[in-house]
Each structure stands twice: as structure tokens, then as C-alpha cells.
Design goal:
The complex is a heterodimer of chains A (about 325) and B (about 450).
Chain A lengths: L4 H10 L2 H20 L2 H28 L21 H8 L1 H33 L4 H16 L2 H12 L5 H8 L15 H26 L3 H9 L4 H12 L1 H11 L6 H8 L13 H10 L6 H26 L5
Helix pairs in contact in A: 3-15, 5-6, 5-9, 5-14, 6-9, 7-13, 9-12, 12-15, 13-14, 14-15
Chain B lengths: L6 H20 L18 E7 L1 H6 L2 H11 L3 E7 L4 H11 L6 E6 L4 H7 L7 H6 L5 H6 L3 H6 L1 E2 L2 E2 L2 E13 H6 L9 H14 L9 E2 L7 H6 L17 H15 L11 H6 L5 E5 L1 H10 L4 E5 L13 E8 L6 H12 L4 H9 L7 H8 L10 H10 L10 H16 L7 H19 L2
Parallel strand pairs in B: 1-2, 1-3, 7-8
Antiparallel strand pairs in B: 3-10, 4-5, 6-8, 6-9, 6-10
Classes of the chains: A mainly alpha (about 325), B alpha/beta (about 450).
């Protein structure tokens, strides 16, 4: 039979103040444990939570505030609360022709980039999945994934060399085939945006391929065998088995990769800086806001944060649309 | 005895491990990017200096740090390569009042980076530090320096950035190709340039030689042409005088060169590959590009001259910039950092000046011209640097603001439209667009 509570309290009191304080803490922790579970768990996740707040939550909150301020890097008086300017940045954004031009370019680019990458990665994944030899399949997987791990600066430098108007392999090849004046791939305002699609697809499709491959490898092989027995052709199997069963992967891929792609790094590497290509023909929103924040004049980071937030909101809407459309099939 | 670990034991072990890790983390570590200059152990006054890798690759800052440390017991200069976001980190440290680094480089004076560093409070004035320095070359640094470069590093009467070299836009040309069409000298004016270029085009048609090229930047192309047309290229608002007849004439000349296929497409597409392939006869670019050519083809094949101007007169000279180092605001051991810079880059360090010259960058001290370029027969091939010094000596510095980049952006946008095949844009329209867009963007910068 347990000791009455009054007696236990008296015993602790007799041991002195230190014992009372210790007991108090024990009681407190005990009560909390009933509600919150094992408190040690919180201790263990504390470093991760702290890091999240410092490196994720705080920059997001700070960025949110900056989007409503006239923060200029070169003018310290605009930093902090003094720079708060309400909706002025948003009004400016809606009147900013260059921004809308860059937004349209980014949308146009995305409309080429997303379907192309999707088709190419799906096709590659299906082809690799058809290889029965495990070693050979692994080699192809590595080849497909290689552009993802290659530093983007090196990858784009190679493409710049390939596209060189005078000495690029592509134009030398075209000249060998008799084309007297091959295109100025990266230099012509008419070509630059389309030219930028290819290196970007190349650098990104590897990760999408891997996701599709995981999806394909998870499809039960017996379904294909049953379809074969029923006389279904390879194409029919792809249409009626592979594609429907890959819908969860499509959701993941589209959520991760769709939206208005800002292609900032690719553009800056292909066209050498923040020019946005010849005559700004490939000036995407990412490059425009980078230029606003880090290159021009007083470095208007507040306004750039507004543009960035707007782009984030648009992409959030697209993500919601993708989720809503493919929700029933979500993994 | 049971070998199982109880929860209590596990927690004790974890806590001990974490405490150990925390203690280890408190121990001072070498800052990221430390190159290990062979300095004595981190005792005494530690002077950390951030420099970009291209600078440490071309100039032996590491070696001079080691020599300086040996000559100054108790001082430990460490050269560290810069890293992503260093500027933000240093500014945060300055706000917090505890700065880890003492010196920094490389900023371009008469350009955007040194004004930015000064305006953001990243760097401090050097006048008092120079006056207090006991290093041999410290005082001579400013007195021996070319006046235009000293002025370009000065803001509100205070001196901020010590240039170790300068560059200016120049005419880098293949003497053998020019010689083949009878041109023994670089053209002095645009008319001569145009006619020589046409001759070279005819002469080099079989080898696909391009007579001339520009670099894409405003300052290396039409900006230089405007400098070469006007005595004062900037208006009261510190913008290039785009609405002047001379600026339109500069654009017209540029278009004539491109339309006549005397340059690569747009004036610059693929110029560097063509240059290295021996298919480019001349390029208007910074003077170090001439040395690149000399290294590839020989010192007798490539040389550098002042840029041709509209009428052969010097006018405003050419855009130029000093490659500067500076001392950080609230830097620890600021005096020692300055002493190190004076020891390394001061005019008394002849070996350092020689190294700078060999990289193709032009020295900043009068004494280096006298003693090395004109005094040492081994440096005869760099005699062209005298012309660069003379040109920079009367050149107009860029205004002290960060607006040149804005004009550069709009210049790049419209110059392509002007010279694109089939373009109907006139030079007047091009100049008007550049000016209006620049003014609109600059207006946004003003509070």
C-alpha cells in the first residue's frame, strides 16, 4: 500500500529546501509528461527545431516583412521598421512593365520546360525499366542522373561552348552539312529563350527520371504479365497500366517541378550575368529580381522580396491546383 | 553482470557526448577558407584578410604574408579566400561590434564595388592608419600613386582603397595582321580604325579573320567611344551624355562596324574564342587582354595602345579602375592590416610590382614606371603601359555612385536591338531608350 501523500510531503520537507525544489520539479515534469509525453523527446528534437527556426522560419518571416518595406542594401536608414512602406512595393510591381515582361517570359519558358522535361524523363525511366540486366540498368541510371550532380556552372559552360556561334560543335556540324549561316543560338533575341530550354531540361531531367523509375519499379510485375497473357501490346500496357499507376509520382513531380520556373542560375551562366540574354529576350523573373536586389543602384532588396513573394504565391496556387486535380491518386 | 544499457545510462552517455561536442565547438577554429600561409601558430595579433581566389592565384599574397609575419614577430597575417555571402557576414559583424577579419579585397575604384563598400560602411578611411604606419612604403603609397587613382579611391576627402594595379580600356591588336595591311601603328581615330578594319577584312577573308571586336560591357564598348568623343562624358545627374550628338555618333560608328561585318555578330559574340583561335585582329578591352594575347601568340605579335577616339584627340580618356584592398570597419588589428598592405603593395616592394606587371595589370606608382618598365631591360615589352599611365592620368573617373550598372543594363538591352540584322532602330532612338530607361530606374533609387 502506498504511503499517504501528506506523509510523503512531510518527509521531503524534513530533508530541506533543496529536496523540496527537486520534488517540485519532479512533480511538474510528471504532470507535463501526462499531457505532452516523454519530455526527453523535445530535448532531442530541440536542435533540429532551433536550426529550422534560424535557417528557415526566420528568413521566411524576414522576407515577408521586407516585401512590405523599402529595404535598400546601400541605405542603412531603410533597414528595419524605418523602411516599412505598406503596399507601395505591390503597387509598383503591378505597374512595372519589365516585371510583367519577365513574368511572361518565365511562363513561356515554363510551358516549354515542364512538358519537355516530363516527357523526356518519363521516356527515359520507361526505357531504363525495360532493361533486365541490373548492372546495365544501374549504368543508365547513373548516366541519366549525372547532369544533376554535375556543378551547374560547369554544365552550362559546356553548353555555352556547344552553342558558340563560330566554333561551337553544333554550328560547325551544321556548316559541315552545308548551312552557310547557322543560327546564333545564344546571341539572337529570337533564339535565346528557346535555346535556354535545352540545357535546363538536360540539367533537371535526371531527378525526375529517378522519381519515375521508383514509381515504375513499385508497380507489381504480375499486372504486366496478366496483360501480356490477355494480348496487350507494349504501348497498350504503357497507356493502361504504367501511366495510371504512376499518377502519384506525377503529382510529386509536378508539385516539385511545375510552376513558373525562374531559371536564374541557368540564365546567368548561359548569358554571362544578369543581362537576361540578348535584348532581354530571356529575362526571367528570377534574373530580374536578382538584378534588382544585388546589381542595380541602391540594391532594392525590399522590392525584390515583393517580386519573389508574388512568384511564390503564384507557384503555391499552381501547387494547390495540381494537388486538387490529382488528390484522389495521391500517394 | 548485465551488459544492457539502461535508459538512464544512455541519457548520461548522450549528455556527456553533447557536452564534449559543445566544448569542442567553443574552441577557436581557423576561419573558413584559410589557406594556411605557413604563419606561426595563431598567437599574437591575428590579421585575417579576405581575398578572391583569382587575386591570390595571380599575386603572391600568401608569400608576402609569410615574409611579413617573419619580419614582425607577434603578428600573424592570414590570407583567406572569399566565400559566398562574406559581405553580409562581415556587415553583420560590424553591426554587432565584433569583426573577425581585418582586411578585404578586391574592390574596383572608379567603378561600383569600392563605392558600395564605402557607402555600406564596410570599410574605413585609411589616412590615419597610413600616417601612423612605420612600414617603409606606407607614406609613399599615396604620394607616389598616380593622382587619378588616388582620387578614385577618395571619398569626402578620405582615402579608402589601396590599388595594387589598375586597368583601363585599351586597344589590343595583332601587330602581324595590321602589318600585313600596311598599318604599323594602332589607329588614333575612328576613321582610320574603320579603313584598317576594312583592309584586314579583305586580306583575312580566307582565314576568316575578324578585324575588330568589343567587349559586351558598356564601359569597354560604346562607353569608351563616348569617353573618346567628349571632354566630360557625364551630365549633371552623373549619367553618360546619351542625348549628345557625340554619343549618337559613337553608336553610329559602332553600328557601322557591326553592319560592315568588321566585328563578330553584335560586336562581341564569341570574341574570346576567336581571339585565342588567332582569328581576331584587334579588341577594345581592358589592357590585361593584350597580355593574354601576348602569352598566346608572343610579345612580338600582340600589343596594347590607347583606344582610338573620334578625332584623334584624347578627350575624357577611357574608363579605368584600380584593383583595391581596404581595411574593414571596426577591424581588429587594423594598423597591422594596413602595415601588411604597405609592406606587400607599397612602391618599395619592387618584386611585387614586377609580378603585377607580368600579369598584364598596370602598376599604380610612378616609381614602378621609372625603375621597372623604363629602367629594367627585361620589362621592355611592357613599355605600352606608359601609354596607359598617360591616358589614365587625364581620364575622367566614373561618378561615385552605383548607377553605372543601371546604364550598363539598358545599354546591353538596346545595343543588340540596334545592331541586330534587319533592325530599323536608329542610333538616336537607341540613345533615347537607354537614357529614358536609365533615368526611370535611377529615379526609383532615390528616396
Amino acid at each position: 500500500m502506498s504511503q499517504p501523500r501528506v506523509e510523503r510531503v512531510d518527509q521531503v520537507r524534513e530533508q530541506g529546501t533543496g529536496a523540496v525544489a527537486t520534488q517540485f520539479l519532479r512533480e511538474l515534469l510528471g504532470l507535463r509528461r501526462e499531457k505532452w509525453g516523454n519530455l526527453w523527446g523535445y530535448v532531442f528534437i530541440a536542435p533540429a527545431v532551433l536550426l529550422y527556426f534560424v535557417f528557415q522560419a526566420w528568413p521566411i518571416l524576414r522576407g515577408l516583412f521586407m516585401a512590405f518595406s523599402d529595404y535598400r542594401w546601400l541605405i542603412p536608414q531603410t533597414h528595419g521598421w524605418a523602411g516599412f512602406n505598406g503596399l507601395a512595393n505591390w503597387v509598383e510591381m503591378f505597374r512595372d512593365e519589365t516585371f510583367w515582361q519577365s513574368f511572361l517570359i518565365a511562363v513561356k519558358f515554363s510551358l516549354m520546360f515542364v512538358p519537355l522535361t516530363l516527357i523526356l524523363s518519363l521516356l527515359t525511366a520507361v526505357l531504363i525499366s525495360q532493361i533486365n540486366n541490373g548492372f546495365s540498368a544501374a549504368i543508365y541510371r547513373v548516366i541519366a542522373y549525372m547532369p544533376v550532380i554535375l556543378p551547374i556552372s560547369i554544365g552550362m559552360l559546356v553548353w555555352v561552348k556547344l552553342f558558340d556561334v563560330r566554333f561551337g560543335y553544333l554550328n560547325v556540324l551544321l556548316q559541315d552539312f552545308g548551312m552557310a549561316n547557322p543560327p546564333n543560338w545564344l546571341g539572337s533575341p529570337k533564339m535565346a529563350l528557346y535555346t535556354m530550354v535545352l540545357p535546363t531540361v538536360w540539367s533537371k531531367f535526371g531527378s525526375w527520371t529517378l522519381l519515375f523509375l521508383i514509381g515504375i519499379y513499385n508497380i507489381n510485375r504480375e499486372i504486366y504479365e496478366a496483360a501480356r497473357v490477355d494480348g496487350a501490346s507494349g504501348w497498350r500496357q504503357f497507356l493502361n497500366i504504367t501511366l495510371p499507376l504512376l499518377k502519384p509520382v506525377f503529382t510529386l513531380v509536378l508539385v516539385l517541378g511545375s510552376g513558373v520556373v525562374s531559371v536564374t542560375e541557368e540564365s546567368m551562366l548561359l548569358f554571362g550575368g544578369t543581362t537576361g540574354g540578348p535584348a532581354e529576350s530571356a529575362l526571367t523573373t528570377g534574373v530580374y529580381l536578382y538584378r534588382t536586389a544585388f546589381i542595380h543602384g541602391d540594391m532594392r532588396m525590399g522590392y525584390a522580396a515583393t517580386l519573389s513573394l508574388f512568384l511564390g504565391l503564384v507557384n503555391m496556387l499552381i501547387t494547390v491546383f495540381v494537388f486538387t486535380t490529382l488528390r484522389s491518386e495521391r500517394a | 553482470m548485465s551488459t544492457r544499457i539502461t535508459r538512464r545510462t544512455f541519457l548520461k552517455m548522450t549528455a556527456t557526448g553533447l557536452a564534449g561536442a559543445a566544448l569542442a565547438a567553443c574552441q577557436p577554429l581557423p576561419a573558413p577558407g584559410a589557406t594556411g600561409t605557413g604563419a606561426p601558430a595563431a598567437e599574437g595579433k591575428v590579421v585575417r584578410i579576405i581575398l578572391p581566389s583569382w587575386a591570390t592565384g595571380e599575386i603572391p599574397f600568401d608569400t608576402t604574408a609569410r615574409q611579413f609575419n617573419e619580419a614582425n614577430p607577434g603578428v600573424n597575417v592570414q590570407i583567406q579566400t572569399d566565400f559566398e555571402g562574406w559581405e553580409t557576414k562581415v556587415l553583420a559583424q560590424i553591426s554587432a561590434g565584433k569583426v573577425e577579419w581585418s582586411g578585404v579585397g578586391i574592390a574596383s575604384s572608379a567603378s561600383s564595388s569600392l563605392p558600395r563598400w564605402i557607402l555600406t560602411g564596410l570599410v574605413q578611411p585609411l589616412d590615419d592608419l597610413i600616417a601612423a604606419s612605420k612600414e617603409k612604403g606606407a607614406v609613399d603609397m599615396t604620394t607616389d600613386m598616380l593622382p587619378t587613382l588616388r582620387a578614385a579611391s577618395t571619398h569626402d576627402g578620405k582615402f579608402y582603397g589601396i590599388p595594387y594595379s589598375f586597368e583601363n580600356i585599351s586597344f589590343n591588336w595583332r601587330t602581324d595582321y595590321f602589318d600585313a595591311v600596311g598599318a604599323k601603328e594602332a589607329p588614333k581615330d575612328w576613321e582610320t580604325w574603320l579603313s584598317i578594319a576594312q583592309e584586314i577584312k579583305k586580306w583575312g577573308a580566307d582565314k576568316k579573320i575578324i578585324p575588330s571586336a568589343f567587349i559586351e560591357d558598356l564601359d569597354a564598348s560604346v562607353g569608351s567611344l563616348i569617353y573618346g568623343s567628349l571632354d566630360q562624358p557625364f551630365d549633371d545627374n552623373m549619367i553618360l551624355k546619351w542625348d549628345s550628338p557625340e554619343a549618337v555618333e559613337a553608336l553610329t560608328f559602332y553600328k557601322k562596324m557591326v553592319d560592315g561585318e568588321l566585328t563578330p555578330p553584335h560586336g562581341f559574340d564569341g570574341w574570346l574564342d576567336a581571339y585565342y583561335a588567332g582569328q581576331l585582329a584587334s579588341v577594345q578591352a581592358q589592357s590585361s587582354r593584350g597580355v593574354w594575347g601576348q602569352l598566346s601568340f608572343g610579345t612580338d605579335k600582340v600589343t596594347t595602345s590607347p583606344v582610338p577616339t573620334r578625332d584623334g584627340k584624347p578627350h575624357a580618356g577611357t574608363p579605368f579602375w584600380g584593383n583595391c584592398v581596404a581595411v574593414l570597419n571596426k577591424a581588429p588589428n587594423a594598423q597591422e592590416a594596413l602595415d601588411y598592405f604597405a609592406y606587400t603593395m607599397g612602391p618599395q616592394n619592387v618584386d611585387f610590382q614586377k609580378t603585377v606587371i607580368k600579369t598584364g595589370k598596370t602598376p599604380v606608382y610612378e616609381s614602378a614606371y621609372k625603375a621597372i618598365i623604363n629602367g629594367d631591360p627585361q620589362f621592355k615589352t611592357y613599355a605600352w603601359m606608359n601609354d596607359m599611365r598617360d591616358q589614365v592620368d587625364h581620364s575622367v573617373a566614373r561618378p561615385f555612385n552605383n548607377y553605372f550598372s543601371i546604364q550598363d543594363t539598358y545599354y546591353r538591352k538596346y545595343i543588340v536591338q540596334l545592331v541586330e540584322p534587319g533592325s530599323t532602330m536608329t542610333p538616336e532612338e537607341c540613345a533615347k531608350h537607354i537614357l529614358e530607361d536609365s533615368q526611370a530606374e535611377i529615379a526609383k533609387q532615390k528616396l
